[in-house]
């Protein structure tokens, strides 16, 4: 890269270029705030973009389904949308800010994020209010202290990870659990609702001795095909 960065965002557009925004801190100006990596040529170039502000840190960014637009939130919770065709950032038209600025997942035209109490929230990108995904009561009742730590996509299903309470005689065994959920969408009097149609699979995928490892910290999860 041409500029040292901390707290930047990186987004792959059209499977050809990686757009990087922010993270320059005090050195930020219009000439270096963004740069782009060309996958085919293996080269970095600074990118001149039109933007209403140059956030020091991008808290979260996601590429939309058309792979031409990036939905981003800065450290103040302000929402931006980037167009790769126009090379322009635009703030949300209504000036709204984001109440859940991290751990997003974009799937099936909606944003998802984990919440306290083993809940999953969702909203459409153009909306501001988050709503609960219904139908998680079975997992919430089966697992005391159920708290989702990571969301992912497995094919057409929503995948969730959570840390089970310590097991064993001395409470030393930590378990990482995983479940795949089928999500159903319905519209009632013009209001969309998302719910868990079925728990396709769930179980422990990792067991560790907490006396030697400490608490689990799942950094990243994604699906791939073999």
Automatic annotation (TrEMBL):
InterPro entries: F-box/kelch-repeat_ARATH, Gal_Oxidase_central_sf, Kelch-typ_b-propeller, Kelch_FKB95. It comes from the Eukaryota. SUPFAM superfamilies: Kelch motif. Signal peptide: none annotated. Residues 1-206 form the FKB95-like N-terminal Kelch domain. This is F-box/kelch-repeat protein SKIP6-like. It comes from Camelina sativa.
